[in-house]
Design brief:
Blueprint lengths: L3 E5 L8 H15 L3 E5 L27 H12 L2 H14 L3 E4 L11 H6 L4 E4 L13 E2 L2 E2 L10 H4 L7 H17 L8 E4 L2 H9 L7 E3 L19 E4 L8 H11 L2 E5 L5 H11 L2 E6 L3 H10 L2 E4 L9 H8 L4 E4 L14 E4 L4 H13 L2 H18 L2 H14 L5
Helix pairs in contact: 8-9, 8-12, 11-13
């Protein structure tokens, strides 16, 4: 009997980490004979699919729209009747065994969860961020880590303009959160939440959610595709978005203090500021721009270690797993889910988040370490990935969850 998975995410292309997990999840289940039916919104970058005609209309907040269009979009952010209607039609066509959602807020909204519940379709949602607790999803504001909304004080998102420093956008998001909580869109509509880090699970429980609503299933890395080669080089590399939450000012200052070489791979709003900081500190930092695929992987292979200097509650960074798969150690900030993925002295090192001196000390230690020791740490990391974080292991864990929710597999 062919099983049917309704797989839901706002975007149907590789936009970020959540989309990578969503698309790889679809691929993994397609490989074992499941019919995977995606539901997303229309977007010019979407991957082709026969189900595209059922997608919701596009919402892109960075574009210029008329006042009327903005009002319509704001209403969809809060509660999308269109997504609800289209998924109702799709359910009738497909009759899925289970639905699995990823990032749906702002674009699709959680309006459709009650439809799935009414049809007795088991529903899972993977939490890629902290949106269900924090209206602005990062638990981060202008003065650092922020948990002011704990206990239901969601007006703080407006008070502190947590969404793009905009009072208007922050008000929309506050209203969105209020409506979703009053309706129980997530708490009543989702049967189980998947969390890729134990930190996120504990944080959600700390904020009032029931522990039995969550299942810890870590992310995965394709170790068969990411093959190591060559000896480690001299540079310490960061790759990812150049955003204020990523701690890249700390990275630049640490590179300057430790007198080592640093690479920054990626683009983002902090790039201009970071270039000025490099000039001011005379840090030996090279900006390599956006890289992906083998170009990115070769950069990691040429590095001495990967550095993750985050200053917000990271979930379960794929960058750590990719570094290990390529046999490179990781130096990570001791925050969020990062410590779960670093074995101190075995696969890398931890430092105090935001502390450039602490990071610089780690870099000095790694810079004088023999290449044999660096490579040994990388190999331990790769073995760890092959044991616990493979695509096959991920699929087994998800299948176990689906069975627990009543799917006859």
């Amino acid at each position: 009997m062919e099983h049917k998975l309704l797989s839901i995410n706002s975007y149907h292309y590789r936009r970020g980490g959540a989309e990578v997990v969503f698309l790889e999840h679809n691929r993994l289940f397609g490989e074992i004979g499941w019919q995977v039916v995606p539901f997303a919104m229309h977007h010019p970058k979407n991957l082709p699919t026969e189900w595209e005609s059922n997608f919701a209309d596009e919402i892109e907040f960075g574009e210029k729209y008329s006042l009327w269009q903005k009002m319509v979009m704001a209403s969809k952010v809060i509660y999308s009747f269109e997504a609800r209607q289209k998924i109702s039609r799709l359910i009738k066509i497909v009759q899925p065994d289970i639905a699995h959602a990823h990032n749906v807020y702002h674009h699709l909204s959680p309006s459709f969860f009650s439809v799935l519940k009414a049809q007795n379709i088991p529903t899972v949602m993977t939490l890629h961020d902290l949106k269900l607790a924090c209206p602005a999803y990062k638990m981060l504001t202008y003065d650092g880590i922020c948990e002011r909304c704990k206990g239901g004080s969601i007006w703080n998102v407006v008070k502190h303009k947590c969404v793009k420093n905009s009072g208007v956008l922050s008000t929309v998001i506050m209203l969105e959160t209020l409506v979703h909580r009053l309706l129980g869109c997530y708490s009543k509509g989702v049967d189980r939440f998947v969390v890729p880090s134990r930190f996120y699970l504990e944080k959600m429980v700390e904020w009032g959610w029931q522990r039995d609503q969550f299942t810890y299933i870590p992310n995965f890395v394709d170790v068969d595709h990411l093959l190591p080669s060559g000896e480690p080089g001299e540079a310490f590399v960061y790759f990812g978005r150049l955003g204020p939450e990523k701690g890249l000012s700390t990275f630049v200052r640490a590179v300057a203090s430790a007198n080592v070489k640093g690479w920054i791979v990626g683009t983002g709003p902090e790039e201009e500021m970071l270039r000025r900081l490099v000039n001011e500190t005379e840090a030996d930092v090279e900006f390599l721009g956006y890289r992906s695929g083998e170009s990115l992987f070769n950069t990691i292979r040429d590095a001495r270690a990967v550095v993750l200097p985050s200053e917000w509650y990271e979930n379960a960074p794929m960058s750590i797993m990719e570094a290990y798969a390529l046999e490179r150690p990781v130096i990570g900030a001791n925050i969020g889910g990062i410590p779960e993925l670093i074995r101190e002295g075995e696969t890398g090192a931890l430092f105090s988040s935001g502390n450039a001196d602490d990071l610089a000390e780690c870099m000095r230690r790694f810079s004088i370490m023999s290449k044999e020791n660096i490579l040994s740490m990388g190999k331990v990391g790769r073995i760890w990935m092959m044991q616990d974080f493979t695509t096959v292991r991920y699929r087994e864990r998800i299948l176990e969850l689906y069975r627990d929710l009543g799917v006859n597999i």
